[in-house]
Amino acid sequence: MASLEMKNNPVNCDQQGIIRPVTNFSPSLWGDLFTSCSVDHSQVPECYAKEIDVLKENVRRMINDDLFVTALQFRLLRQHAFDALSCIFDKFTDNNGKFKENLKGDIKGLLSLYEASHLRYHGETILDEALIFSTTHLESIENYGTFMGRQVRHALEQSLQRGIPRIEAHNFIAFYEEDESKDESLLRLAKLDFNLLQILHKKELYEITRDRVVECYFWTLGVYFEPQYSRARVMLAKTIAMISIIDDTYDSYGTLDELAIFTDAIERDGAKIWASSSGIECYMNEYGVSEEEAMKEFNNIAENAWKDMNEEFVKTKDVSMEITKRIVNLARLIDVVYKHNQDGYTHPEKVLKPCINGLLVEYFKI
Predict the structure, then answer these.
(1) Is pTM, for the whole model, over 0.85?
(2) CA of 108: how far to CAs of 5, 67, 111, 128, in Å?
């Protein structure tokens, strides 16, 4: 959707004498990549699914009780709506409630603790401390060129809890493949699972592709990537594409007189559109603060919102988890697409291109 950068763009006069802003949307990055071929499910070897079942049993046997495993189990339980208790980390703290200094050399354990701390609720001071402790020591790593170093650098930029699940799965498979101690059966299971689902996603994209719809479809993968939601993904991608056109009309094309008529027409059908400023600009104007101060406050709001969402996801039982998952996934999308206050939708070459390549273009060789 149109970036607020558009407001400073030059203008152009059309044949009717109407002055319009000159848009600077990026051209489609994908050409005919997703329209030149279709995907035939019959080409997928049936042995894929059979082998996945066998490999799952092997993975079940791979579990000890150090910081890495404890934090991993905690994170997985909360991510699947089980209310794991944060006091499980007490055994890693000293009498003052601080994490033991001998842990700072356990990079793998610190990374697992860092990821787990992003599932914290309000008032969980031990996890607040865990985030500070793990971040401080992970940032002090001198060599980011190693396998573990590259994994740490990525995590510090994008935590698992706030990342898009399929992108993070793709990234981890690539990292794990470089690990000398990797388990080959676990790696093969991950690759088979990823490739099998990617085939379905590419088939769906083939059915709906037009200019810019690739980015729209990427949003749907972030909300629900599971195979059973195929029809929902196609419907949502088309809806986002229509909303995008309307949004761009407001931000980048229509005059005030035209938009007044357009808005009246839309509202007669029960829909309403926000046509100009961003939340940050509104906050700056209302409180007379700088952009940096507004951004700092918005980051605080986001951190508190993540704590609220972490807790509500686990403890809310009167709403199906299949619904609450989509809310969390949408928040993850926002975190990725608009990270560091950049507009990854309007300028997909900066943010979304490598993500889309990883999800829908590249596949893992088995």
Answers:
(1) no
(2) 41, 9, 5, 19
